[in-house]
Write a structure and sequence with these properties.
This protein is an alpha/beta fold. 43% of the residues lie in helices and 14% in strands. The protein contains 9 helices and 7 strands. β1, α1 and β2 form a beta-alpha-beta unit. α3 packs parallel to α4 and α4 runs parallel beside α7.
């Protein structure tokens, strides 16, 4: 039975990843800062014996290493780096919130790489060897140059995700020879706590699309920045 590990699994996209993979019979390692206080996630885990809950704060090195230690080399076919933060305050010049900016980098960039590095051997020990990272269309340099600032300035979120894209692209180059597949996703504008009620997609639509892509040949998507619909996104 294949195994998937999802960070940020307590709500939104992460919760939907857990729901869909569990329904399809995967072993699901649902990771979040405090999974035992997440009502919906706990309900899913109670209803599906193939879901296990794991506490991890990706901004904390000790917490990440503790997770790796508890997994003890267990193969992870698909690692989904979903956890992230979207600062709302201090988004204009003259009123910048630098603490919020540091937090965005700590979670979205450094935290994602902490988890990926700590669990790399788990991924490489699996059959599929896939690393999927949730980014955003707002991270695209070309999109900003050609289309403006759809979604607002969002300095902290945009820059942390753009840096994450570069890091994952470099990682793809490094891990390709070891048989791993690294892909970056723009999940679209989704109706979640982060995306808001006016978003275009439901979590079911976004996650179903990304899962369909991940179910294909890992080599075909390696090193790419793709939308939930499979379309290549501009860097």
């Amino acid at each position: 039975m294949a195994t998937v590990l999802v960070t940020g699994s307590n709500r939104g996209l992460g919760l939907e990843f857990v729901r869909q993979y569990a329904a399809d019979g995967w072993e699901v390692l649902a990771a979040a800062r405090d999974p035992h206080s997440a009502k919906e996630l706990k309900g899913l885990a109670a209803a599906h014996k193939n879901i296990s809950l794991h506490a991890v704060d990706i901004a904390d090195e000790e917490s990440v290493q503790d997770l790796a230690g508890k997994l003890n080399g267990r193969p992870v076919d698909v690692l989904i780096n979903n956890a992230g933060t979207y600062p709302r305050e201090g988004q204009t010049i003259g009123q910048m919130d630098y603490d919020g900016w540091r937090e965005a980098l700590e979670v979205n960039l450094f935290g994602t790489f902490r988890v990926t590095e700590a669990l790399l051997e788990n991924v490489l020990a699996s059959e599929r060897k896939q690393i999927a990272t949730i980014s955003t269309g707002m991270s695209s340099l070309r999109a900003v140059q050609s289309g403006g600032l759809a979604g607002g300035t969002a300095y902290q979120y945009r820059t942390s995700k753009t840096a994450l894209n570069m890091g994952m692209l470099v990682l793809a180059k490094e891990l390709g020879p070891r048989g791993a597949s690294v892909v970056i996703f723009d999940p679209g504008w989704v109706k979640t706590d982060m995306g808001g009620p006016n978003a275009q997609l439901t979590p079911e639509q976004s996650i179903s699309g990304m899962r369909k892509i991940l179910a294909g040949d890992p080599k075909e998507i390696h090193g790419k920045f793709l939308g939930w619909d499979g379309a290549v996104r501009p860097w």
